Amino acid sequence: MDSEGKILIIEDDKSIAMLERDYLEANGFEVFIAPDGTQGLHLLEEHKLSLVILDLMLPGIDGFELCRRIRKEHEIPIIIVSAKREDIDQIRGLGLGADDYVTKPFSPQQLVARVKAHIARYERLNAANNRSGMLSEIIIRDIKIDCAARKVWCRNTEIPLTNKEFELLVFLAGNPNVVFSKSDLFDKIWGANSFGETSTVTVHINRIRDKIELDTTKPEYIETVWGVGYRFRGQN
């Protein structure tokens, strides 16, 4: 079976680590296990990993500090799996850069599903970022974006945009006809470990529409895909 990716489990409870490993390997993943944070950090440097599953109550370096260190150096998804059920622990873990928080006891099948979803999302955002990052100029109908000069024209009139508005517009226009959820856009433009809410994305989308759309109730460029997210409509 072809490997779907390499997963690092940092967990001091051997039985839980083996359970997670067995289900992940059955789904085609290559799995490494570290019983503490120090060994986990070594494995992170030795292997090109796709995702980290992280316990919080670890000997030595605790999971919160470990999450902070991993996120500082790596962009791969982090799923915290912990017996800590308090909201404050979940908020803290997500605030330090974790992508998901699963409480023990958990469904192994659900954990595998979350692993697959986070890896797919990470790969999709990376691919989209590479596409938009290679563009020096984007021209779609009456919109022209000079990525190097960070300038935008609409119907031959220069449009003033804030930094975040510009980055959001470039990302969407650089990946035309691709639907991105608000969470995807928030992670990409503001950063996965930023504090804030996905409603920030809606506010910025509305501001951009006010500046480039002739009729914001019938947007020509940035379309809402109800229940999913937003996409930039490409050439007709």
Model description:
The protein has 236 residues and is of the alpha/beta class. Strand 4, helix 4 (87-95) and strand 5 form a beta-alpha-beta unit. The protein has two domains: 5-128, Rossmann fold; 135-232, Orthogonal Bundle (Arc Repressor Mutant, subunit A). The relative contact order is 0.10. The protein is built from eight helices and eleven strands. The strands form three sheets. Strands 2-1-3-4-5 form a five-stranded parallel β-sheet, with helices on both faces. A four-stranded antiparallel β-sheet has the order 6-7-8-9, covered by helices on one side. A two-stranded antiparallel ribbon has the order 10-11. It has helices at residues 14-26, 37-46, 63-73, 87-95, 108-133, 163-173, 182-189, 199-212, and strands spanning 5-10, 29-34, 51-54, 78-82, 100-103, 137-140, 143-146, 151-154, 157-158, 222-225, 229-232. The N and C termini lie far apart (42 Å).
Short recap of the structure:
By secondary structure, the chain is α/β, with parallel strands linked by helices. 43% of the residues lie in helices and 20% in strands. Strand 8 and strand 9 form a beta hairpin.
Key attributes of the depicted protein:
236 residues, alpha/beta, Rossmann fold, Arc Repressor Mutant, subunit A, 2 domains, four-stranded antiparallel β-sheet, elongated
